[in-house]
C-alpha cells in the first residue's frame, strides 16, 4: 500500500491511532484492491461504523429534553445519519484527500463521490471503536456528527453548494505554502473554481486553511 501522511488527518479528527494499519484500512476503497491484492477494503469497518453511529445517535436523541416521541426520533436519526450529511462532514474533514483508490476510481473523481465519502466516515467510526474503545468513538460522533449537524454549515460546505450551483463543478483546494516546525506548522491554501483563484487562507492545519480560503471565496462570490 502506498504511504500517505496520515498525521495531518489525525490532527483534524483529533484521534491518534495506536494501530496505523487500522486507520489505513478505514481509508481503503475496494477499487484499490484490484491493483493491490491481499489487502482489506473498508467495507467491513463501514458496516460496523454504520451500526455504531445509529446506536449513538439513538441514545443521544432519547436523552433529549423535552423528550421526543418515536416519530421525531426516527426522523432526526435519519437526518443525522443520511448519506448527504455524512458526505458533507467527510468533506469537511478532508477524508477524500486520504482515500486509497484504484486508478480508475481516482480518475473518475472517487475522492469526491458522496457514497465514498459517507462510507469512509462510517468506516472511520468503526476503526476508532476498535482502536480506541467506545468512549473515544462516542466522543468523535458527538463532536463531528451531532454537534456539527446542529451548527451552521461550514464555509467549505457552503462554497461547494454555491460553486456546484453556479459553475457545475467542485471547488479545488491546493496547498501553496507550508512553514514552521512540524509541531506548529502554518499552511497556506488557495481555492479555485472555473479556472480562477477565489480565495486564499492560512491555518495551523490544512482544514483550517481551507475553511479560511472558502470564507474569503464566499465573500467574492
Give your account of this protein's structure.
By secondary structure, this protein is mainly alpha-helical. It folds into two domains: 145 residues, Ribonuclease III domain (Ribonuclease iii, N-terminal Endonuclease Domain, Chain A, Orthogonal Bundle), CATH 1.10.1520.10; 65 residues, Double Stranded RNA Binding Domain, CATH 3.30.160. The chain has eleven helices and three strands. It has a three-stranded antiparallel β-sheet with strand order 1-2-3, with helices on one face. The protein is globular. The model has no long low-confidence stretch (mean pLDDT 88).
CATH class of the largest domain, named Mainly Alpha
Overall helicity = 55-70%
CATH names the topology of the largest domain as Ribonuclease iii, N-terminal Endonuclease Domain, Chain A
Please state roughly what percent of the residues sit in beta strands, choosing from under 5%, 5-15%, 15-25%, 25-35%, 35-45% or over 45%. Answer: 5-15%
* Count of spatially separate domains: 2
- H/I helix tally: 11
Radius of gyration, Cα only, in angstroms? 18 Å
Q: Uncertain regions: pLDDT < 50 for 5+ in a row?
A: none
The CATH H-level homologous superfamily of the largest domain: Ribonuclease III domain
The strand order across the widest sheet is: 1-2-3
Distance between the ends: 40 Å
Give a short account of the largest sheet.
Answer: 3 strands, antiparallel
Total beta-strand segments: 3
The CATH architecture of the largest domain: Orthogonal Bundle
Amino acid at each position: 500500500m502506498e504511504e500517505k501522511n496520515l498525521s495531518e488527518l489525525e490532527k483534524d479528527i483529533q484521534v491518534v491511532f495506536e494501530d496505523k494499519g487500522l486507520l489505513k484500512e478505514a481509508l481503503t476503497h475496494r477499487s484499490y484492491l484490484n491493483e493491490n491484492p491481499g489487502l482489506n477494503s473498508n467495507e467491513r469497518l463501514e458496516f460496523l461504523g454504520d451500526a455504531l453511529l445509529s446506536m449513538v445517535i439513538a441514545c443521544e436523541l432519547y436523552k433529549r429534553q423535552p423528550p421526543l416521541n418515536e416519530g421525531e426520533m426516527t426522523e432526526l436519526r435519519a437526518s443525522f445519519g443520511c448519506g448527504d450529511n455524512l458526505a458533507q462532514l467527510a468533506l469537511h474533514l478532508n477524508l477524500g484527500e486520504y482515500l486509497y483508490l484504484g486508478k480508475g476510481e481516482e480518475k473518475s473523481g472517487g475522492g469526491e463521490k458522496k457514497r465514498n465519502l459517507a462510507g469512509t466516515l462510517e468506516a472511520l467510526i468503526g476503526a476508532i471503536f476498535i482502536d480506541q474503545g467506545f468512549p473515544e468513538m462516542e466522543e468523535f460522533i458527538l463532536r463531528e456528527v451531532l454537534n456539527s449537524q446542529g451548527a451552521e454549515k461550514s464555509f467549505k460546505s457552503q462554497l461547494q453548494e454555491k460553486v456546484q450551483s453556479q459553475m457545475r463543478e467542485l471547488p479545488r483546494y491546493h496547498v501553496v505554502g507550508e512553514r514552521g516546525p512540524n509541531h506548529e506548522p502554518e499552511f497556506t491554501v488557495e481555492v479555485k473554481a472555473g479556472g480562477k483563484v477565489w480565495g486564499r487562507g492560512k491555518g495551523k492545519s490544512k482544514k483550517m486553511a481551507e475553511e479560511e480560503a472558502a470564507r474569503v471565496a464566499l465573500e467574492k462570490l
